[in-house]
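Why do we care about 3D structure at all? Because function follows from shape, and shape follows, mostly, from sequence. That is the central idea of this module. The next example makes it concrete: a single protein chain, its amino acid sequence, and then its structure expressed as C-alpha cells.
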Amino acid sequence: MKSLLKSSAYALTMLAAPAIVMASPAAAQSIKGLAVVDQNKAVGDSSAFRNSLTTRQTTYKPQIDQATTLMTSAQARAKPLLDQFEAERAKPTPNQETLRNLAGQIQKLETDTQNQRNQILQPLALSEAYVLEQIGDQYDAALKAAMAQTKSTVVLDISATASFDKASDITTAVTTELNRLLPNAQIVPPTGWLPRQQREALARQQAAAAAQPAPTATPPSGR
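And the structure:
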C-alpha cells in the first residue's frame, strides 16, 4: 500500500511563481552573473517543509489511522469479488454478463473507497497547502537574498536549461534563505481557510455576483 502521506509535485506547483528574469540558454555563456534554480527542490529541502511532514504524521494521526482502516477493510471486501472475477474469467466459456456485473461492483467499491479516503484525508491536504503557501509567501524574498549573496543578476529556472555549470546552481542558497526566513511553518490552517487559488476564485465569483443589477420589483396591476 502506498504511503498515505507523500509530498506531491502537484502540491509544490501551488506556490506563487517568483519574479525571475529569464534569458535564453544559448546566451548563458555570455551573461555575467547568470544562475539557475530548482524551485521545487529549494522548497522541498526547506526545514519548514521537511518538519511539516513529520509533524503532520502526529497532528493528523487519527485521520491517517482511519484512512488506513478504511483501505484495509475495502481490500478485504474486494478480495471475494476479485476471486470470483478471476475464476469466471478462467472458465473455457466465461459468462460475460457475470464478468460485467463483478467488474461493476469492484469499480464501485474502488470509487466509493477512494472518495471516502479523500474526504478523511482532506484536513491533511489542506495542511500541506497551508504550509506550501507560507513557504511560497517567503520564496521571492529568499530568491532575491540568494541572488545578492551569490552576486547573481539573472536567474533561469532549471527546467529552462539544457545544461549548466554546477557552480551556477543557487538552489541550496535559496533553501538556506528560506530556512532563515521561515524555520518552521504552521501546520493547522485557521478554521475555514482555503488555498489562495480557491480564495481568489471565490472572490471573483462574489465580485461578479455583486456587479449584477438588482431585480426591479414589478408594481401590482390596478383593477
